[in-house]
Design a protein that fits this description.
The structure is a single chain. It contains nine helices and 14 strands. The protein has about 350 residues and is α/β, with parallel strands linked by helices. Strand 12, helix 8 and strand 13 form a beta-alpha-beta unit.
Amino acid sequence: MSVSRNGFAARKVHYGKPGMKPLTVFVVSKPTQPCLRLLEKLPAETHLVVGDRAEMFRDSAADATVLMNVMSPLALFREVFAMCPGLRWVHSFSAGIENSLFPELAASPVPMTNGRGVFSRSLAEFVFCGMMYFDKKIALMNQQKSEGRWENIDRVDELHGKTLGIVSYGSIGQACARLAKAFGMRVLALRRRPELCSDDPLVDRAYGADGIRDMFAESDFVAVCSPNAPGTRGLIGAAELAAMKPDAVILNVGRGPVIVESALIEALREKRIRGAVLDVFDVEPLPAGHPFYSLDNLLLSPHSADHTPGWTDNAMEFFLENFERFRAGAPLENLVDKSAGY
C-alpha cells in the first residue's frame, strides 16, 4: 500500500487468479476527498492510481483500463485521457458531464457512464421545498418573526390541484413527478420523445420540444431538470418566460445555462412571474454583486441542494456497483449518449 502526498492510501497490489492481468483504475480527484476511502472495496488485484496532477498517472498510463473523474477540472481530465491508449470505460462521478466530456472522448469508442439518478431524490425534495417556500409564504413568516411582528397572513396556498411542468423528464424529473402525485398535483413533462410517457401513470400530458411554451402557459410551477448539453443551453429564454402565468414559479436544479440569466433577471425584476428557485448558475460561485443577490422573489442555493449526508459516498457506491458489472462483462448502467451530451 502506498500513501499519496495528501494522505489517501492507494493500493497498488497485483495478486489474484494466476495469470490474470490486474485492472488499472485511474481516479482523477483531489486525494483528500472522503469518499475515496470506499475504493478500498475494489478487488484486491486492482491497480489503483488517484491523483490531481497529470504526472501522477504517467507511469501506469499504458495499462489504464478505467478512468473516473471525481469533480476535477475538464482540462486535467482531458489530459489524463489522452495518455491512456487502452481505456475501456470512462465514468463521471457527477450526473453532469460538462467537466468530463470533450471531443476526443465523444469521438472514441470508449463507453462513458455518469452518476445520473444518485442525487435525484434530494433534488426533487428541494424542488418541493422551493414550491412550498412560495406557496406557504415562508419569506413573509421569517420577516415578521425577525421584526417581532404578529400579523395575520390572509392566504397561504396548497400544492394540491396545481400543475407542475417538468423540463427534461429524466431521473430527477421522474422523482419530482412521484412527489407531485403524492401532493395531488397535475404533472406535465417535456422530453425529446414524449411518446415514452404514453403509459406513465405519473404524467398527465407530455410535450415535445415544440410544445415548451404551451407547457409553460399551463404550469403553476416549472421544474427545470436539464443537463448542460448542446440542445439545452439557452432553452428557456424571454419568450418561454413570457409564456408563464404571472403567479408561476420557475425552479432550476439542472444546470444554469439552460435558462438565459439576463431574461430571468428581467422577468423577476419586473414581477412578470412570481419568483424563481435556483440551485445552479451560469458562473459558480455566483460573483459578488450579481443581480440575483438583490432580488426579493428568488430563493437561492449555492449549488448545495443535493449535499445530503453521504451524498458523495452514494455516488462512489454506484461506481463500485458498475465496476462489478464491468468486471463481469455485464451491461453498464447509466450509459451516456456522448453525441447528445447526456
